[in-house]
């Protein structure tokens, strides 16, 4: 890998490693702050997923710094990500136990995941290495799924709050 390309890839991975660690810290911190059991479980699962993302990125960064190349990457694109769909797409079992205090936390999670998806999409444009493209595109996909799920959760929380206040805007 060319020196300039390697430096760019190294910087991307360093930033991504830090982002994933901060996301894990966010979910671990806020899982005990939310009122909804459903959101607590979702945050626990996401903390674990972000730890997996961190580990994947850290291994690639280590390889890049030591060998000037990415190691072979074989990601199962569904690994661990199904928790998102299971927790947020099953609307028949929505429990409406949201508390108004959960809404800002859900919005922060949405914004964070949106930022991550955008970062990985932009980083993807900056690399020509096939292994890096595969890694970044998979991470972008995962983060988009997280973001989209939080968008649904924010809607559910808002509707729950409306119902509890006897407000029906539709």
Please report the distance between the alpha carbons of the first and last residues: 56 Å
Q: What structural category arises from helix and sheet content? A: mainly alpha
The total strand number stands at 0
Secondary-structure element series: HHHHH
Proportion of helical residues: over 70%
The number of helical segments is: 5
What characteristic shape results from the CA principal axes?
A: elongated
Indicate the mean pLDDT. 81
Question: Nearest-angstrom radius of gyration?
Answer: 18 Å
What are the segments in which pLDDT stays under 50 over at least 5 consecutive residues?
82-96
Largest sheet: none
Hey, roughly how much beta strand do the residues contain? under 5%
Question: Topology of this structure?
Answer:
Blueprint lengths: L2 H28 L6 H31 L14 H7 L13 H23 L5 H35 L6
Keywords:
170 residues; mainly alpha; elongated
Report on the structure:
There is one protein chain. With 170 residues, this protein is mainly α. 73% of the residues lie in helices and 0% in strands. The protein contains five helices and no strands. The chain has helices at 3-30, 37-67, 82-88, 102-124, 130-164. Helix 1 packs antiparallel against helix 2, helix 1 packs antiparallel against helix 4 and helix 4 packs antiparallel against helix 5. The radius of gyration is 18 Å and the shape is elongated.
